[in-house]
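NAD(P)-dependent oxidoreductase
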Amino acid sequence: MKTVGFIGIGLMGTSMAENLIKAGFTVSVYTRTKARAQAFLEKTGAAWCASAGACASGKDAVITMVGYPQDVEEVYFGENGILDAAAPGTYLIDMTTTDPRLAVRIAEAGSARGLHVLDAPVSGGDTGARNATLSIMAGGDPADFEKCRPLFAAMGKTIVYEGPAGAGQHTKMANQIAISGALAGVCEALSYAEHAGLDPHKTFESICKGAAGSWQMENLMPKMIAGDDAPGFFLKHLLKDLRLACAQGEPGSLPVLEQVCKACGELDAQGLGDLGSQALIRYYREHRAE
């Protein structure tokens, strides 16, 4: 496996594609707006393709890392899409966080065309993408997973086969549910500390390494304290993921998830979706002030 088509050169996709090139793969890329990929193209010398189908044609593997389920639908099933362009035997890996049911649809459509399909969403944000330390959760055929392991190893550190098609996405839903609770807990703790008149820096120092500590606290609480809303992971993408997770369960069965989803939705409605997920603290500060 040598040639890779990579579709979606965004906040995380850029670093993931660059790490594939560093690992020795020949990478061609496609994104809807070429200008967004220009710096990457100039830095790496990767080939540009004019459509998703062109990016998939003649490749050993195709990786997609796009924004929303509708974007996944477009690049796989749309005009000049991947499924019609990829040659039988090609490995297709969707690393977008999307609906598990869509992952199954792609796998079924791909299998009918002689393609090998995996859903392999990731966790770790832009830092994990840059450092090739992403957690990768894969669903599909186990033999296909093993064949693609060298690709995953170029981008991630924790690489786990989860089960059949859709299992990777279901695992990512569990991941996002856990994140929602941890992130909300950090926000509530900081909001409480501020309201009590505590020094937030001292509060962070006191609790971040104890039983309350988490990745969310260690990495995002300092940003909340500093007022740094720059995205490592967009709030709007967290909202997308949480809505997908909510759709998998019965209403009321995941109350913490549903509350955090509601809070993210309110912030997104205020036009704050392009901020980082740490901007969730704004919701708690606003409601504490009321």
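thats it. Residues 25 and 175 are 29 Å apart (CA to CA). DSSP finds 14 helices and nine strands in the chain. bye
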